[in-house]
Structures are given as structure tokens and as C-alpha cells.
Amino acid sequence: MDNSYENCLKACLDCLEACEVSFRKTLEEADAGKKSDAIRLYRESADICALTIKALESESDFIKKYTLLCSRIVDQCAEECKQFEQAHSMSCAEKCYLCAEECRKLAA
């Protein structure tokens, strides 16, 4: 794997994990029904991170497209996450912002 991908790969892995945690924890909350946008974005962000990781590991010809799309989705997820005060949401927002930043570097 290309060494320039390592920071992005780590950021995507961290973001994937944070989104999975927030997805599960939010579903367990009493007001989960009011957080459907966040729940959807957690899932979509985790999914695009997983796809981006696979693209990076296989050195896909479409890495720039994957990383651009990933940056957009996880940026939106971060914005949604920061509306909530739970620790998992704040952590998810931070990981999403870092992932978006690393993905934008590769997409450029």
C-alpha cells in the first residue's frame, strides 16, 4: 500500500469505529426516534469509511472519488454529531472531522 494513504486509512478506521459506537448507543437512548437523521448518518458514515478503507487497501483507481465522497458524508455526520452532548457524539464529531480532513488531502 502507498505510504501516503496511511494517515487517511487510520482516520477512516477511527471514524468507522466512532460511528459504529454512536450508532449503537443512540439506538439505545430513550429519544432515539428524534435522532433519525443522526442514526442514518452514523450508518452511512461507517459504510463509506469501510468502502474507502477497501479502496485504499486495494489501491483502487477511484481513490480520489471515494475519498471525496467520504469527506462530504463524514463532514455532514460531524455537524449532526456536535448537536448532541453525549460523549460518544462529541468523540464521533472529532473523528469525523479528522477523517474528512485526511480524505480531502487525498482527493485533491
Automatic annotation (TrEMBL):
It holds the Pfam family Csp. InterPro entries: Csp_YhjQ, YHJQ-like. It comes from the Bacteria. PANTHER family: CYTOPLASMIC PROTEIN, CYTOPLASMIC PROTEIN-RELATED. This is Four-helix bundle copper-binding protein. It comes from Bacillus infantis.
